[in-house]
Specification:
Layout (H helix, E strand, L loop, with lengths): L9 E2 L2 E7 L8 E5 L10 E6 L2 E10 L14 E2 L7 H14 L3 H8 L11 E7 L18 H10 L5 E2 H8 L3 H9 L3 E7 L18 H14 L4 E7 L5 H14 L3 E5 L7 H11 L4 E3 L5 H12 L5 E4 L11 E7 L7 E2 L5 E2 H12 L2 E6 L4 H8 L4 E5 L10 E6 L13 H12 L3 E5 L8 E4 L16 E3 L4 E3 L6 E2 L14 E4 L3 H11 L5 E4 L7 H12 L5 E4 L12 E6 L13 H13 L10 E6 L5 H8 L2 H14 L6 E10 L2 H13 L7 E14 L2 E11 L4 H9 L9 E6 L6
Parallel strand pairs: 10-17, 10-18, 11-13, 11-14, 12-13, 14-17, 19-29, 20-27, 20-28, 26-27, 28-29
Antiparallel strand pairs: 1-2, 2-3, 2-5, 4-5, 4-6, 7-8, 7-9, 15-16, 21-25, 22-23, 23-24, 30-32, 30-33, 31-32
The structure holds adenosine-5'-diphosphate and zinc ion.
Length: 740
Amino acid sequence: MDPGLSTYPRAGQQVAVSVLLPLPLVTPYDYLAPDDLSVEPGSYVEVPLGARQATGVVWGPARGGVDPEKLREISAVLDLPPMPANLREFVDWVAGYTLARVGTVLRMTMSVPKALSPPKPVTAYRLAPGIDTKSESLPDGVRLTEARKRVLQVLADGTSRLAADLVRTSSASSSVIRGMVDADLLQQLAIQDEEPVAQPDPALAGAILSDVQAAAAADLVTAVAAGYSVTLLDGVTGSGKTEVYFEAIAAALIAGKQVIVLLPEIALTADWLGRFEKRFGVPPVVWHSDLSMSERRHNWRAVLYGQAKLVVGARSALMLPYRDLGLIVIDEEHDSSFKQEEGVIYNARDMAVVRGHIGDFPVILASATPSLETVDNVWRGRYRRLSLPERFAGASMPSIAAIDMRNEPLDRQSWLSPNLARAVSETIAAGEQAMLFLNRRGYAPLTLCRACGHRLDCPQCTAWLVEHRLLDRLQCHHCGYSAPPPKTCPTCEAEGRFAACGPGVERLAEEARAKFPDVRFEIMSSDTIHKPADAIALVRRMGAREIDVLIGTQIMAKGFHFPLLTLVGVIDADLGLAGGDLRAAERTYQLLHQVSGRAGRADRPGRVLLQTYQPEHPVMQALIGGDRDKFIETEANARKLHNMPPYGRLAALIVSGRNERAVDDAANALGRSAPRREGLSVLGPAPAPISVIRGRHRRRFLVRARKDINIQDILRRWVFSLKVKGGVRISVDIDPYSFM
Ligand code: ADP
Ligand code: ZN
């Protein structure tokens, strides 16, 4: 028995422990820990569950309440380091905060079941005893061909190599290698294929920092050694935030700690990966949804064994079983992709701060447009702020101006104003590059029949189908439904009467190409960029000036550095302002600021033109005037007035199911039992703005509470006491970002 369990209560002769299983369970279950197994808190164990075996984690002392006679025994302890105590505490915390089942949260940390068992041994080769590269050491009658010599040379350093590696490095075929085994020149052995992770070298020289950068870096380096803290690294686009936090990473690595860097749009961060490799000598370990099974398995184990020192990834990288975490960096902390909207609904930025608090290590939040939540934490003294107010190497911030669309003569089916078109010509004539931003994928967001007015919509959602002309498909952006465009109207059967309404990037490109036949345009959206290699290719082609103008969606807003890009034109600056989203203004500001930040990043000054119908809107005024802080203050005051986050608490409930009656029944029952108390209000039930998604009907509640009210306790009592029927699901969204 492990000393870690000595304080646990005993059931008869054996210690009883609780084991949490990665299943939708709200508590761990009790099991007996046999004396011959070395079980400790955090051990990954196999236990009987009904008629099958399940793998879980020893969570703590037995919970009791089960007849000791009926307790079953842990059947095996897996050969893995135990899950660290602070990760177990974190799992409990996340479950408590998000109201998710604790077993479901555990499952996020065990997302690669195959990684729990060691990989199968593979064949490797080394020199047989007494053999070296000299011919006098050879067994009698053995001849050395050129290929055999090359193999001996590769293995001369005494290490063993995997068959595939040996074939590659020696250029000898595998039959040559087998022949050498038969001739007693080589020894064959089975080894575990835990390919070691290349270790980043913090001692390599970083960039030579400017004084402001160096001061910020020194401050972060000190923070790395000083336990929990949260620092907002607040720097304009192009100020060198990445170079600065690299120094904090180096300090954590020198201290032997593991580090997480969370980035939005991980598939597009080729530039970041290249910069990391340049600074630390090796590529980082990555974690995102596009990894192959063997990469996932390898990386998960490397994290648990403490081999992976730096992991860069999407939000789920936060949930890996780090053995000794010492720093988390969240780049673009304001980005809404850190919020997971399905399964366990959580915000990885906020949970990272919790993880830092539990593990007593620092967290760095970097952004040019920090979220109001974060800025408010700075104002209240809970987070520190380091500012980088200027672009690196004297590059100036771009000038931003509005094009008042109320005064621009536009042809029908045209979106590029004469003013913006002129700016594009000037830019190209000056030998520079431009970017036209429209945050809409595809050709047109709506297709309707001119004969009867029918709108083509998704059969599974209350949403229009988006035409993607390049693919010759209609797509639903909510459920992924896709179909070829129909020949005739499904309602009136008219032929060839469809009209595309509104622009997407494909349609904008069509207009731009017609206006500028000699200019080379390229579309950049998630339809054209699927993987890091696509982004690398695009960056290369921009650098080689094979492209004059990029036309794209928000995918080009972040991280890209195109030195010759001097003009950014925003086609519909008002697009994000419509709708009742409480963060509509904040998000529009952030997005347009980010896009603007692509202009003039090197020696040539940049300019930004915003096509808008409301140039007097506070968002446009803040962008034009470059007065971010005043904008944040105005936003803060508006939120304060309405007790909206971060000045009040917000939670959403989404009741959904295939059977509309059952959904309404459940929603109405919830409505009747809604909590009534001072400082808390419940809105709903109301049909969700997208009232059907994937065939599920949806009703919403919005719960608003004063900051001092424990909204989780109230929700738990209210929601969990309701018995739902008919396949209805109730999901709880604490701190909602989506109101659809
Ligand atoms: P941010 O993340 O603040 O937008 P980056 O870290 O991406 O800024 O830096 C912008 C550009 O300036 C990058 O190309 C980066 O390599 C360069 N840069 C920033 N600081 C330095 C420095 N101290 N030395 C050399 N290049 C730098
Ligand atoms: Zn759909």
